[in-house]
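Protein in question reproduced for absentees:

***
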Amino acid sequence: MFAAVAAAENGNEVFLYEKNEKLGKKLFITGKGRCNLTNACDMDTLFSAVVSNPRFLYSSFGGCTNQDVIDFFEKAGVRTKVERGGRVFPVSDHSSDVIKGLDRELRRLGVKVKLHAEVSDIKVREGRFEKIVFPDGEEVAGDCCIVATGGLSYKTTGSTGDGYRFAEGIGHTIKSCIPSLVPVETKEPWVNELQGLSLRNVEATVKDGKKKLYQEFGELLFTHYGVSGPLLISASSYVGRKLMEKPLTLEIDLKPALDQDALHKRVLRDFEENCNRQFKNAVGKLFPAKLVPVMIELSGIPPEKKVNVISKEERNAFVYLIKHFTMTLTKLRDYDEAIITKGGISTKEIDPKTMESRLLRGVYFVGEVLDLDALTGGFNLQIAWSTGYAAGKSIR
């Protein structure tokens, strides 16, 4: 939609072919239905949030900044607000308003929108775009074609990998695709006991043996199959490919505000206050209620053991457990739960200024179909807007 608006503003006759019964089905569900349409951060932060191929975006981010996106929607009648972490939402909290704003612009500029119009193939001739083909054999010729089909996440919205098929069919290289910004499964059976527990202000570290792959502070959530929440969703962006090859170790520091010595003093104080009680009844202040039985089990200290006979070695091991609460990450959840797709059309084969194929004239690729992905917070939609705008504006 954004690419069509940009192309129409340039005076082109633009046709938008949408396989669904309405526009913006995926946009409708973004940000839990509120549509986190960009991030109001500075440009350095914007680039640092891009995980794959940030350099490719220098030109397009410069040509259509996050502020440009906010201004566009404000002018299109969508008032915006900035929330925690720079996240930008419509004031109404309704993603439908973002879609309506885009729809109004498409109508104003005379873009011809064709719904229920699934494209089955792209045809090129003598090194340039010739026509698109529909399942019933109908063909439509044109001067240029912008492919904005998304990735493989949320198939019910129409993201079924069509763009990768089109690109491969005309000679492009596809970097293997995996789910990203997605929850992760774990091996340990006791994780099921923690289902629904949210841990705030903890530090998560993902390791491959001794090598640190990811470390961040924030919030995580336990599920019946493993771990989710902002910390692990972000971690999946960095460790996903490695996790496809082998299991990885997740270490959680449950008390990152305290160093080992300070935590040891805190535990000692709790033990002294409860010296005549059993171990299982002496650690309630240290953890949320759901976590207490698991920590007792993992500590190796008998639950009925009196606190005053717990040895120094046992206490030291317990403190270490609190700082290194460990589990094994085994696999990513599927595309149905993934916010985005990692991988896609190789950016080496795309002109970063125009999004035009370097292999063929008149074929452009934008958004998630490219090997570009970022963290949560409006950054992936910014990639979509900026690359869409770059393509649309370069067509004259």
About this structure: The mean pLDDT is 97. The first strand starts at residue 15 and ends at 17. The radius of gyration is 25 Å. The CA atoms of residues 76 and 101 lie 5 Å apart.
